[in-house]
Amino acid sequence: MSAVRTEQLTVAYRGRPALSDVDLDIGAGERVALVGPNGAGKSTLLRAIAGLVEPTAGSVELAGVPIAGLDRLAIARRLAVVPQLPTLPFATTVEEVVALGRLPHEHPIRGLRPSDRAAVAAAIDRVGVGHLLGRDARELSLGERQLVLLAMAVAQAAPVLLLDEPTVHLDLRHQVEVMELLADVNQRDGTTVIAVLHDIGLAAHFFPRVVVLDRARLVADGPPADALTPERIRDVFGVDPALVRLPELAELPATGPA
Question: Angle formed by the axes of helices 142-156 and 172-189, to 10°?
Answer without folding.
Answer: 0
